[in-house]
C-alpha cells in the first residue's frame, strides 16, 4: 500500500480508503485463522494483531484533502490516543477544505446554479459552517493532541477567525485578540474584549486608548467608553491620558480636543475632590480625638481618677474583687480580663479601635 496506494486511490478511491482504514485500525489477516487449535486447550494465547501506522499513509492523500479527512477522522474515532502528527494533519486539512470551499463550489457550479447566486452563496455558507463546526469540535476536545502553536499559525494562514479567537483566549493572549480586531477595524469587538477580559488584565483598556490615539476613523463613543473605565478603575492619571492622546501620530489623535475628554477630566477631578473632602474629615476627626486624649492625659497627671464602674465590661455582671480598672473607664473581673485580654496592658474593649489607628499610622 505504501508503494502503490496512490495509484489505488486514483482509480478506486472509496475501496482504497476503506482498506487503509482497516489496515490502521482493525485489520485481521484472512490467510491466518484468528483462533489456533492449540488455543482451545489453553496452551496458547490469542495472537496480538498489530495495526499499521496511519502516519505511513498520509502522503497518499496529499492530492485529496477530503479523502484524507475521512481517513483521519476514522483513525481518531477508533484510536483517540493517536499521535500528534495525526491530529495536526487533520486540523491542517480541515482548514484547507474550509478555506477552499467557496472557490471549489463556484468552479463546480452548473450554469443553473450560477444564475441564482444567492442560492449558491447560501449553500457555500452552510457548508462552511458545517466544516467550522467540525474544526471547533476538534479544537475544544480536551483529549485532542494537536499542537496549539502550529494550529494557531494555521488559523492565521487560513484566516479562520473562530479558531484563532478560541486559541488566543485559551492561551490568555488577550492583547492579540485586540490587535486582530484593530487590524480589521472592528472597534465594537475591541470594547467587548476589554469588557470580557479587562478584569483579568486591566492593561487592555490602556491598549485600547493607545489604539484610539494611533488609529483613524474611530468613533468618539469608543474613546468615551474607554476613558470611563480608566477613570473608574484609576488606571491612568489625567496627565498620562492627555499625553497619550496628544502624542498620537494619527488623524484621530490630532483631532481630539478638550471636549472629547471633558467628561473624563470632570469625573476624575470630582472623584479626587470627594477623596480630598473625606481625607479632610478624617484629619479633623483625628485632631479632635487627639485633643481629647491630650486632655485626658493632662487630667490623669494633675487630678485624681475615680473608677465608678459597677459592672464587668466583659460579662456585664456585678463587679466584685479582685477586679481590674482601666483609665478608659472599663472595668473587668480578674478572671474575665484574663479570658478576653490579648495584652495585660491594654483594654480588650478599646483594643480594636487602637489597632485601626495604629494600622493607619503604619501605612503612612
TrEMBL record:
Record's bilayer topology term: Peripheral membrane protein
A GO BP entry: vacuole organization
Source organism, top-level taxon: Eukaryota
Entry keyword annotation includes Zinc: yes
Gene Ontology CC entries for this record: HOPS complex; late endosome membrane
Subcellular location: Late endosome membrane
All residue ranges annotated as the RING-type domain in the record: 312-350
InterPro entries: ARM-type_fold, CHCR_PEP5_VPS11, Znf_RING, Znf_RING/FYVE/PHD
Signal peptide: none
GO MF annotations in UniProt: protein-macromolecule adaptor activity; zinc ion binding
Keywords: Membrane, Metal-binding, Zinc, Zinc-finger
Chief location category: membrane
PANTHER family: VACUOLAR PROTEIN SORTING-ASSOCIATED PROTEIN, VACUOLAR PROTEIN SORTING-ASSOCIATED PROTEIN 11 HOMOLOG
Family the entry assigns: Belongs to the VPS11 family.
Identification of the protein by name: RING-type domain-containing protein
